[in-house]
């Protein structure tokens, strides 16, 4: 069977194939391979945005706040927790950006472990995670312990075991590494960190909506993630934070605003934190930017995260198959885990000179993700990408690599 026939056969057997039709068309795009950076919009999102502006905002005006907007950070958080995070109600909020939530949670965590002076993290984590922790370390007089990870794989439990000790307040890692796509063993790393008395903070940006997550079951203490990648929330859509029930009374986040107050509208003289997860909020929630979440969560609930993961593995498996057949012979390297057990939702390819191919790729309607210095990330979002689309995109890449040999 030719690879094109294989793509067609995989599409014909795909139980999620019809979900593609729910997305707005992008006429100039032949192959969108960057769902891990910005998910595509649903047609339902355009309608919801229009209704929201005309009816809820335009029609109800300030009454919208008491109609329900004030509860959205919590109600959407609970839905997200149930559909994608394996989190029981009352532990997830939608708010801020991932960067700001990382700051709030990491500060709360290190302050809850007084006397412990060490934070363990890895050198290959997303820049914002590293930068935020640098700032907190400077602010609180902590030492950062950097684990060097293999750039083709990622954080290993044995490395964490070697790094944590009685002085460790917090460990911070990404569930799926943004560069290699390595899927970390979250329960095992949690077990190791907890044995040393440290708290664990997980960044779910590259796994939420793509890989099944079981925060409660895995013993995660704190987590953050963004909603504009596999969750299709739109550019700059608000992030989410998870704080396990048993820690909610003892952790205090540092940005004490009126929306995290026990009684926001009493406008009282001093700050008194709300009980429960609401205390993670700071200012007025970005309601307008939360509108798409309603359509996206409906879709993900209907599709089911297990089915999404099954298709994701077939998609990235097909990427590997095409890469091995077409690109590896041309000097391209696969710099992602190959085993399904440790593979997240994207595959990264490496070759010097990829940067020069970006413009001709875009001109041909093929949109992968480029990461300096020479990595192309292929991130086919399962609900919006077909196998034929992956075939078409990588065929264009193959032709360009051949031409630029
Ligand atoms: C995308 C991403 C972020 C983004 O943070 P923002 O505050 O939304 O800019 C953070 N961490 C990881 C691991 C990411 O992949």
From TrEMBL:
Coiled coil: none annotated. Its EC number is 3.7.1.3. This is Kynureninase. The modification N6-(pyridoxal phosphate)lysine is found at residue 229. Belongs to the kynureninase family. It catalyses: 3-hydroxy-L-kynurenine + H2O = 3-hydroxyanthranilate + L-alanine + H(+); L-kynurenine + H2O = anthranilate + L-alanine + H(+). GO terms for molecular function: kynureninase activity; pyridoxal phosphate binding. Pathway: Cofactor biosynthesis; NAD(+) biosynthesis; quinolinate from L-kynurenine: step 2/3; Amino-acid degradation; L-kynurenine degradation; L-alanine and anthranilate from L-kynurenine: step 1/1. Pyridoxal 5'-phosphate binds at residues 98-99, 126-129, 203, 206, 228, 258, 284. Its cofactor is pyridoxal 5'-phosphate. GO terms for cellular component: cytoplasm. The gene is kynU. It comes from Actinoplanes cyaneus. The keyword Transmembrane does not apply.
């Amino acid at each position: 069977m030719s690879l094109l026939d294989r793509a067609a056969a995989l599409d014909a057997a795909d139980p999620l194939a019809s979900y593609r039709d729910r997305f707005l068309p992008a006429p100039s795009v032949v192959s969108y391979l960057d769902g891990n950076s910005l998910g595509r919009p649903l047609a339902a999102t355009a309608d919801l945005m229009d209704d929201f502006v005309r009816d809820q905002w335009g029609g109800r005006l300030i009454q919208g706040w008491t109609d329900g907007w004030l509860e959205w950070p919590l109600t959407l958080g609970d839905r997200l927790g149930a559909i994608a995070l394996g989190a029981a109600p009352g532990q997830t909020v939608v708010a801020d950006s991932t960067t700001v939530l990382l700051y709030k949670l990491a500060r709360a965590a290190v302050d809850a472990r007084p006397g412990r002076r060490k934070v363990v993290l890895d050198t290959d984590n997303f820049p914002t995670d590293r930068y935020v922790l640098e700032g907190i370390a400077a602010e609180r007089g902590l030492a950062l312990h950097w684990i060097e990870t293999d750039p083709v794989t990622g954080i290993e439990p044995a490395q964490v075991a070697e790094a944590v000790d009685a002085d460790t307040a917090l460990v911070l890692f990404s569930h799926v590494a943004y560069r290699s796509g390595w899927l970390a063993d979250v329960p095992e790393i949690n077990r190791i960190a907890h044995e040393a008395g440290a708290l664990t903070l997980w960044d779910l940006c590259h796994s939420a909506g793509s890989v099944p997550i079981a925060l409660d079951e895995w013993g995660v203490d704190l987590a953050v993630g963004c909603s504009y990648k596999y969750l299709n929330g739109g550019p700059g859509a608000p992030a989410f934070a998870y704080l396990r029930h048993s820690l909610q009374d003892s952790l205090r986040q540092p940005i004490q605003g009126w929306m995290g107050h026990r009684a926001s509208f009493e406008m009282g003289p001093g700050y008194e934190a709300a009980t429960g997860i609401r205390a993670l909020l700071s200012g007025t929630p970005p309601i307008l930017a939360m509108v798409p979440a309603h359509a996206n969560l409906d879709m993900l609930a209907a599709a089911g995260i297990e089915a999404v993961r099954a298709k994701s593995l077939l998609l990235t498996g097909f990427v590997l198959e095409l890469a091995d057949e077409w690109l590896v012979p041309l000097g391209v390297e696969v710099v992602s885990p190959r085993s399904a057990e440790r593979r997240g939702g994207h595959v990264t390819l490496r070759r010097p000179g990829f940067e020069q191919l970006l413009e001709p790729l875009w001109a041909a309607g093929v949109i992968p993700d480029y990461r300096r210095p020479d990595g192309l990330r292929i991130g086919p979002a399962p609900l919006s990408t077909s196998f034929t689309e992956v075939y078409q995109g990588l065929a264009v890449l193959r032709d360009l690599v051949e031409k630029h040999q």
